[in-house]
Specification:
114 residues, mainly beta, five-stranded antiparallel β-sheet, 1 helix, 4% helix, globular
Length: 114
C-alpha cells in the first residue's frame, strides 16, 4: 500500500521572477510542490480571493540549515529581496544562518544601533 502525504509550510518570495526560500523539511522528498501566491487585497477566507497556485521546482536544498530554494514560473511578483550589503540599516529585519555540523542554527532579530 502506498500512502499519500501532504505538508504545509510557508516561504518568502525573494525575487520577482519566482524564486522562493522555504524550509527544507517541508519539501524534502516531495514528488510535487504546489505554491499558492496570495492575492493582494480582498478577503483571504473567500476561496476566490486566495490567490494563484503554481507548480514549483526545487532549485536547491540544505538540510544542515533547513533551507530550500524553489522556482515558480511567474514574473512581477512582490518580493522581499536579499541584500548583498554586510551593513544593515537601523530597524531592518536580520536573519543569520550558521551551519556547524549537526548543530545548525538560525536566528532572527531587528537590527538596532544607537
Amino acid at each position: 500500500m502506498i500512502g499519500r502525504q501532504r505538508a504545509i509550510g510557508s516561504g518568502v518570495i525573494v525575487d520577482p521572477q519566482g524564486y522562493i526560500v522555504t524550509n527544507a523539511h517541508v519539501v524534502k522528498g516531495a514528488q510535487q510542490i504546489d505554491v499558492v501566491v496570495p492575492a493582494t487585497g480582498g478577503d483571504p477566507s473567500d476561496a476566490d480571493e486566495r490567490g494563484q497556485t503554481f507548480k514549483a521546482r526545487l532549485v536547491g536544498i540544505s538540510t544542515e540549515i533547513d533551507l530550500a530554494v524553489l522556482k515558480i514560473d511567474a514574473s512581477h511578483l512582490p518580493a522581499l529581496p536579499i541584500r548583498a550589503s554586510n551593513v544593515p540599516k537601523q530597524g531592518e529585519m536580520v536573519f543569520a544562518f550558521e551551519a556547524l555540523g549537526a548543530s545548525a542554527t538560525r536566528s532572527q532579530w531587528a537590527w538596532s544601533v544607537p
